[in-house]
Amino acid sequence: MRRSLAAEIMSKLVKATDLSAFKRCDRLVYLNHNGDPALRVPSSAYQKWVQDQGIAFEQQVVSTFDIFEPEYPIADFEQGFALTLDYMRQGVAYIFQGVLLVDGLIGLPDLMQRVDDPSNFGSYHYRPVDVKSATKARIGHELQVMFYATLLESIQGVRPEGSLFLRTPSSEAESAGLFTEMPVEYDAEIFDEVLAQVRALAAGEEPPPFYSSTCKGCHWHDVCVPELEASEDVSLLSGIRRSVWQQLRAQGIRTYHDMAKLSPGELVVYKGVGKITAEKMINQAQALSTGQPVVFAPVDLPEPTDLEIFFDVESVPSEDCFYLMGLLVRRGDDLTFEYDLAEHPGEQAAMWEQFLQHIDRIGGWVYHYGVYERTAINCLMSRFGEDPRALDLLDRLVDLQKVINESVTLPLKGYSLKDVAPWLGFEWSGVTQHADDSMLEYFHWLETGDRTHIDNILVYNKDDVEATRVVRDWLLTLSGGEK
């Protein structure tokens, strides 16, 4: 009950995380403040794990400082602010998660560090530091630090410089330390514009929903997506940019049926829309309107052979860790799932060598879906050295997503493998259904040594390469090939 009260109070105040949420989606800010909490989709197991890892990293970083933390009853932010001011007046070195309240804004910076430079408090002032488990900063992170700097300026009369403490990538942690400090440059123009929009959204100014890739993992997915689908919104066109969508709405083009009636010449008048983009948008609208794919160019695929390979990589991008190279090998009518696995991150070099021997021995075209497999090969070469077998593999890769983009428009709002294969009737069979789940299984394996987690990863990867095969075989029916 008390935590519910805290959430209710926080929903009435604009906070730093609202600014980072705004950079993902304006409607996210509106719903976080005004939506019915009962309609929120619960966090996935992976999202919860990421949150827990972020908290653990923050505690690890903060433990290296001599901190003072205000202790106050849950939801009593006024008392928390008073205690924080007491610490600031005392001039303590570091304040952990102090409370800053100014004009309907609330800030809870991870650290406030005393700096020997004058302010209303005397010969010193405080600067904000936010701890992030990310290895690279996003604009949303920087806006949060600017938010804290703004509140501190109102309180101490001096706008401080702020920083982010970012997690050092595991490959560099031994030499570089636990975290890396990144100073944040205050951009008043950008900050003031974003804060004004966030205030309006929090106060109840409701924006229309817009479909983007962020919708899949959003807590408000079940509120916005059904509304978009019911209205047949033009934002359901795969890859449409928000700026273009806004221009179309302003001219009364609200549905993909409206779009399907237009000519390319009627679209190129909009900023950001060229001839090729216009043609793709119209094809996409027609596919959604009819529920049928639109083939607009010949499907360019290698001729079928008796030996074919379907390839998928499992990794933890944030850790630069590649842990599984999976293959589905078709020899005539036989399908065999084969793989090379790094059971621990330290085994990546051995896995890479085994994989290169493996793939070189098999030969033949190698089909994959999306750019990531090519990216992974290049990353592994940059880490372990250029290799003629890897260079040969790059020449043998066939990206099926690229083939689709260059030849056929699908009646789908997304073109990931998880969108396309189910449309063709394929279903993932295991408990692990997404790449995030696979990463989580790998972390659990490292923590527990329970082989079940490896088994779940293998089932998931086998399904990925099976799905890739299904997509390739369907494309062959469009190209006139047979399999």
What is the CATH level 1 assignment of the largest domain? Answer: Alpha Beta
- At CATH level 2, the architecture of the largest domain is Alpha-Beta Complex
Distance between the termini: 61 Å
Domain tally: 3
Helical segment tally?
20
- Using the CA coordinates, give the radius of gyration: 26 Å
The mean pLDDT is 94
Given helix and strand content, the structural type is alpha/beta
Question: Would you write up a description of this structure?
Answer:
With 483 residues, this protein is α/β, with parallel strands linked by helices. The protein folds into three domains: 2-202, Lambda Exonuclease, Chain A (Alpha-Beta Complex); 232-292, 5' to 3' exonuclease, C-terminal subdomain (DNA polymerase, domain 1); 307-479, Nucleotidyltransferase, domain 5. 49% of the residues lie in helices and 16% in strands. It is built from 20 helices and 16 strands. A six-stranded mixed sheet has the order 2-3-6-7-8-9. Strand 2 (67-68), helix 5 (77-90) and strand 3 (94-96) form a beta-alpha-beta unit. Helix 2 runs antiparallel to helix 6 (139-156), helix 14 (348-362) packs across helix 16 and helix 18 crosses helix 20. The radius of gyration is 26 Å and the shape is globular. The protein starts with a helix and ends with a helix. The relative contact order is 0.08. The mean pLDDT is 94.
